[in-house]
Design brief:
binds fe (ii) ion; two-stranded parallel ribbon; two-stranded antiparallel ribbon; mainly alpha; single chain
């Protein structure tokens, strides 16, 4: 099927065929997947927009203006379009487990990208502070492109996430602005690290590049890098955000984001096998890069080489499997299994939190350039 096929016109027969084969997820269930709100799925956020709007970027003015100018120059303006590098994708010939996991990966990536778009657009709409609205407008522009590009890729498989419906109907989680900073800064930087790690790996092992979208990851991840830079600067406007009790909040967010990523990636064994990537190695590599980058602003980094770190992540993953098995089993036995799994996951997370963090003194200037 070609890229231009519209979801509403030509895909009905494809979806029907798919349903007959009971293999491919149709668009409605793709949207349903995107609608899920669990600890492991991407969420939509809302915040105190007035407080956000009151931020004064004067303390970081020079770096700020430079970053905004870079984003306004729009280096990726023409990037998110299919061109001759977009080889034909044999969705029908794809191994069914791989296809299912890859589609799940695309849906969850699309939801995450779009979640950024929705939050940033809302900030732009509600704000009056020109520095802030300009930034959020530029970031919303990028995230809309990213989500749209993934949706284009999904459409070739006869699937699309209904982004309009998501905006209207998905549950929004409220976070105070400082928590938005920690969570969003991290998700942008970890997004950069994830995309660039896959890109570099596939540069060395092109035989594992089973879909053309990976060729787009390098320029793509530079957008995420810049978004992360913006949040680093925002946090630099107020030293309180990265000191005192907030050191503990930062440690909490680092642990939660890393642990979620590790568990989620292990849910996709066929996907990682096709990429020729061991998810444990990949996780560690992404954490290492993200930790190194986050030294630009965070007063602590996690000790990912601590002897309890990896065993706890493994335990968390086992607990997650137990929860899933309990849910599938149903009945009282299944319920008990699920609750026991959840208790184990909770205790393991606490154990991860008790690993001492490594103190860090961020440099005078926060700005970084992508180095991987
Ligand atoms: Fe993005
Ligand atoms: Fe981003």
């Amino acid at each position: 099927m070609n890229a231009q096929t519209s979801l509403h016109s030509a895909d009905a027969s494809t979806v029907e065929e798919a349903l007959e084969r009971q293999e491919v997820i149709d668009s409605e269930s793709a949207t349903a997947v995107a609608m899920q709100n669990t600890l492991l799925t991407p969420r939509f956020y809302t915040t105190d927009f007035e407080e956000m709007d009151a931020i004064d970027v004067t303390p970081v003015r020079e770096a700020w203006d430079k970053l905004i100018a870079e984003m306004q120059a729009d280096p990726n303006k023409g990037h998110f379009k299919k061109n001759a590098d977009w080889d034909t994708v044999d969705w029908d010939g794809m191994e069914p487990h791989l296809r299912a996991e890859f589609i799940d990966f695309l849906i969850s990536s699309c939801t995450a990208e779009f979640s950024g778009c929705v939050l940033y657009k809302e900030m732009k709409r509600r704000g009056k502070n020109q520095d802030i609205t300009t930034l959020f407008q530029l970031m919303a522009r990028d995230e809309a492109r990213h989500a749209g590009f993934i949706n284009d890729a999904l459409r070739e498989a006869g699937i699309a996430v209904n982004l309009g419906f998501l905006t209207q109907s998905k549950k929004y989680t409220y976070f105070r602005p400082k928590f938005i900073f920690y969570a969003t800064y991290l998700s942008e930087k970890i997004g950069y690290a994830r995309y660039i790690t896959i890109f570099r790996h596939l540069e060395e092992h092109p035989e594992h590049r089973f879909h053309p979208i990976f060729k787009w990851f390098r320029e793509w991840c530079n957008d995420e890098f810049r978004h992360g830079e913006a949040f680093a600067l925002l946090m630099r406007t107020d030293p309180k955000l990265t000191s005192g009790i907030n050191r503990y909040w930062i440690k909490f967010f680092l642990t939660a984001v890393y642990a979620t990523m590790a568990v989620r990636d292990h849910q996709r064994p066929y996907f990682h096998q096709a990429l020729g990537v061991d998810p444990t190695w990949y996780g560690h590599e992404v954490f290492r890069k993200t930790s190194e980058i986050s030294k630009q602003v965070f007063p602590v980094t996690l000790d990912i080489d601590h002897r309890r770190w990896q065993p706890n992540l493994d335990r968390l993953q086992a607990a997650n499997q137990q929860i899933a098995a309990g849910k599938k089993q149903g009945g009282i036995g299944g319920w008990l299994k699920e609750k026991a799994g959840a208790a184990k996951a909770g205790m393991t997370f606490v154990s991860l939190l008790t690993i001492p963090a490594i103190a860090n003194a961020p440099p005078v200037s926060a700005r970084l350039e992508p180095a991987y």
